[in-house]
Amino acid sequence: MASKPIKLGRDPPSVLFKQLVKNSFAIIDNPVDSTTLEALDVLAEWFQQPSGTKQAAATAAAGTAAAGRGFFPLPDKEVLEVKQGWGPAGVQQDVRLVVREAFTGLRKSAAIVLQSLFSSDADSGLQATDQQLEGWIGQPAANSAGSSSSSSSVLHVSSYTSSSTNAPHLLGGTEQHVDRGLLTLIADTGPGLQVLARDGSWVPVTPSPQQLVVLVGHTLSWATAGRLPAAVHRVVPASSSSSSSSSSSSRGAPRLSLAFKLRAAPGAEFAPATTTGTPSGELHSGYRAPKRTRELMAAFDATHQSIHNQSTDQQQQQQQQQQVNIKPSHVTLAAATAAAAGASPESKQAAQAGGPAAQPEPARLPAAATSAAPAAAAVALALAVVATAAPTALATEPAAATAAAASAAPGSFSRPGPAPVPGLLLSRACLGCWTTTGCLMSWHCRWLRHWRRWGAASSSSRTWAAGACQQQQQQQEQQNVEQLARFAADYAQVRLWAGRGRAGLVQAASAKMIRNAPA
Ligand SMILES: O=C(O)CCC(=O)C(=O)O
Ligand SMILES: [Fe+2]
User: Fold this and answer.
1) What confidence score (pLDDT) does residue 9 get?
2) Which residues pair with 204 in a beta bridge?
3) Is residue 183 within 8 Å of 137, Cβ to Cβ?
4) Nearest in space to 226 (alpha carbons), one of 385, 21, 78, 424
5) How wide is the angle at C-alpha 257 spanned by C-alphas 332 and 414, nearest 5°?
6) Which of 136, 170, 337, 414 is deepest in the core (most CB within 10 A)?
């Protein structure tokens, strides 16, 4: 990364704030001399055990409060989930100790980052007292467990398994997503993490061993009325030849990361008008009413589907589903076709990400998202599809083009949750369901707006509207994808015929006439 790492005690907090506003991520020197590095080393070794051993050791036994939780072998990585007070008896004591210390150290670092963003020296205009911030984060003490003021923060240790697929950047890593919490701190043993920049490009983020990556999460972005944009990020595992190791024991081993997710306590309340010092009337309507964490998270769940953000129960369900249907289920039409076609990196990125339109924050969308996104993403998407269909078609017969496009059509891929064909939808935030990748303003949401106006919109009505609206969006997205696949097939045929010169075009015209001639 181009910019220098930030030293929190030395650099003014405004530097951090500005960098997060600009990039939605920053690299800092670890403000707490914690055992993060040691934990990476110890865990790299721990992850070398067979999957079954790890699962047996780190998954909490049935009948306990954390039953079934702890270790998740996913298709593209294995995740060890660590919460406050973690310590399954099956895990060696030294590993438990180091991991707990790393948890505590990262938690402190995250609190320091949050505090600096709200300190008056940050020139951020953000306002929250230390007491308020403590209320947001919740109490770490074990005796508050389960209460609405208890900490929900979690440490995810991920070991990325290598993928044999020819689209490793899609299947062997982590799909693009936004973290749900306040902020995430990441330490890792090698390259792979990427953050979506405002211009739609993916920026590799490579902290060195003493550094941490700070990512803004959905909750903090919402609490600051979008002033701090949430980081859209993904993990693209480097090929083994290019993987450089920052930790001696992990050389040649899969990338390992520690992602500490500072999450809001369940009962915390966020009022952007107070936090930003902006009169409520001046805020985007989506931010006007204060929200509690639970409400915020329900809206988040309705619009963001990612295994990294789910509750553990949801993860387990999805895990089972993925074991049956692993490969194409992660892949969006655009991304799959772009990858297969070797389309230009820019078109791949735009197609996968929909540019900044995928940013889940309703207000203060980057200019590119509000103006160019729908058209640009649609074009990028079409290009990616055509790029796949066309070369195949040129080498063979027109029918092959249709088949190539059809093979990428909706039936051949499915994705849990809304299919991300961004940009084809309206890129505005919905007042009802809180969708930001493009609510169609379905009648459910229009109703909700009316209810709101009359003061009758409860959180259950919002949940209902969100569900119904999401369903409608999925149908619409499906139609868009089908339409696009048809367009790609037609376009590929025209290119094929055009490639044969005038004779080809005449042939195309006569074929069309014959097709359309009355029987
Ligand atoms: O492995 C990483 O660097 C990031 C993982 C991640 O994004 C997550 O767990 O939410
Ligand atoms: Fe993440």
Assistant:
1) 84
2) 194
3) no
4) 21
5) 15
6) 337
Element (H, E) at 244: none
Whether residue 220 lies inside any domain: the answer is yes
Whether residue 429 is contained in a domain is answered as no
Residue 179, Cβ density class (10 Å: 0-12 exposed, 13-18 middle, ≥19 buried): buried
Q: How far apart are CA 411 and CA 105, in angstroms?
A: 47
The 3-class secondary structure across 61-102, one letter per residue, is: CCCCCCCCCCEEECCCEEEEEEECCCCCCCCCHHHHHHHHHH
Q: Could you identify the atom of ligand 1 that is nearest to the CA of residue 308? A: 10
133 falls within a domain: yes
Q: Taking Cα atoms as reference points, which of 68, 49, 48, 50 lies closest to residue 59? A: 68
The best mutation among 72, 154, 158, 305 to test binding of ligand 1, ranked by most ligand atoms within 8 Å of the C-beta, falls on 158
DSSP character for 431? T
What pTM does this model have? 0.61
Distance 396 CA to ligand 1 centre (A): 42
- Domain total for the chain? 2
Q: Which residues contact 362 (CB under 8 A, 6 or more apart)?
A: 226, 284, 286, 287, 428, 429, 434, 436
Helix %, strand %, coil % for the chain, to 5? 50, 10, 40
- What separation in angstroms does the CA of 4 have from each of 13, 19, 26, 211, 335? 14, 11, 9, 11, 32
Residue matched to tokens 């729908």: 374
Structural domain contains residue 109: yes
Distance CA 428, CA 65 (A): 41
Instruction: State the residue range of the domain holding 494.
Output: 471-518
Query: How far, in Å, is the centroid of ligand 1 from the Cα of 14?
Result: 26
Residue to probe by mutation, ligand 1, list 205, 235, 246, 262, most atoms within 8 Å of CB: 235
Residue 223 is predicted with a pLDDT of 97
Atom of ligand 1 at shortest distance to CA of 257? Answer: 1
Average pLDDT per block of 10 residues along the chain, 519 residues long: 80 95 96 88 94 88 75 87 88 92 94 95 93 90 63 92 48 78 96 94 94 97 96 78 41 84 95 94 93 94 64 48 33 29 33 28 29 38 37 28 30 30 36 48 63 66 71 70 66 63 66 58
Tell me what pLDDT residue 294 has: 94
Q: Residue written as tokens 């790393």?
A: 102
CATH of the domain at 188: 2.60.120.330
Residue in the structure block whose two tokens are 């009337």:
281
195 contacts 203 by C-beta, under 8 angstroms: yes
